[in-house]
Amino acid sequence: MTIASLPPMPGVGFKPEHFAAIRDDATGIGFFEVHAENYMGAGGLPHAHLSAIRADHALSVHGVGLSIGGARGLDRDHLARVKRLCDRYQPEGFSEHLAWSSHGAEYLNDLLPLPYTEETLQLVCDHVDQVQAVLGRRMLMENPATYLRFAQSTIPETEFLAEVARRTGCGLLLDVNNVFVSCTNHGSDPRAWLAAFPLHLVGEVHLGGHDAEELPSGPLLIDSHGAAVADPVWTLFAEVIARAGPLPTLVEWDNDLPDWPVLAAEAARAGEILAKEGMGLARAS
């Protein structure tokens, strides 16, 4: 099984609207990430753009449609398309979500939560094993943003993710915004969640924006990927890097896309934290 790694630098999600600006100046950007499902055609402009980006930069492929937590098994045709994409571009990273998004032949436009039980744990591990065997590479599993909890859950989320990694050999993708969103929605402490999370298994970090809706019960945060990273998320990220050292860090901005300088500035802020906190960790050790 191939175990590649992204550079411990800031990255951004590649959007074709930014292609010309990136070709002019991508200073400080360590890697680009794309959603696998956007590049499953055989050719055309999407692949022309991605080939040009790949020629000069490290690449992460992020899946959103494998439905790792789906109860009826993985779609083998979809997995085969992911394999063809990874074989074509040989990315330094491949990741997916701890979620389900399909039922039978129907695909849902969302990443839905799972009950954290022994039965679900075995299901997810079987699917991760299948993905890694077909791709011939290690995948990273991302912690979800959640808006409800299952009464059936018997395993804390951090333990569930750690156990998936232990049984399958996969790595973990830490989405700091998802931690903040989920913990805020559930009235729990994001720092306690992060203290229990196995940072040594993290192969990539995600940062993104969220929206807030005011409900009678209090604020509900929604992982929107359509805004700048919020200050509390930046603070949590800095604390993570101070503990773990520099990690490949992606700024996600998929909706209400800003001009390239705005996104590049978010990546630069991540880069400053990686340098500052990583230097502090080196001095302490």
Describe this entry's structure for a reader.
By secondary structure, the chain is an alpha/beta fold. Helices cover 41% and strands 21% of the residues. The protein contains 9 helices and 12 strands. The protein has helices at 19-24, 45-56, 76-89, 118-135, 157-168, 176-186, 190-195, 231-244, 260-284, and strands spanning 10-13, 31-35, 58-62, 93-97, 100-103, 106-112, 140-142, 171-175, 202-208, 210-215, 218-223, 249-252. Helix 3 links the parallel strand 3 (58-62) and strand 4 (93-97). Helix 8 runs parallel beside helix 9 (260-284). The model has no long low-confidence stretch (mean pLDDT 92).
Give the uncertain stretches in residue-range form: none
Number of helices: 9
Shape: globular
Radius of gyration: 18 Å
Number of strands: 12
> How do the strands of the widest beta sheet line up side by side?
1-2-3-4-7-8-9-12
Strand-residue fraction? 15-25%
Largest sheet: 8 strands, parallel, barrel
- Measured between the Cα atoms of the first and last residue, the distance is 32 Å
Mean pLDDT: 92
Which structural class matches the secondary elements?
alpha/beta
- Secondary-structure element sequence? EHEHEHEEEHEHEHHEEEHEH
Proportion of helical residues? 40-55%
Topology (SSEs and partners):
Layout: E1 10-13, H1 19-24, E2 31-35, H2 45-56, E3 58-62, H3 76-89, E4 93-97, E5 100-103, E6 106-112, H4 118-135, E7 140-142, H5 157-168, E8 171-175, H6 176-186, H7 190-195, E9 202-208, E10 210-215, E11 218-223, H8 231-244, E12 249-252, H9 260-284
Parallel strand pairs: 1-2, 1-12, 2-3, 3-4, 4-7, 7-8, 8-9, 9-12
Antiparallel strand pairs: 5-6, 10-11
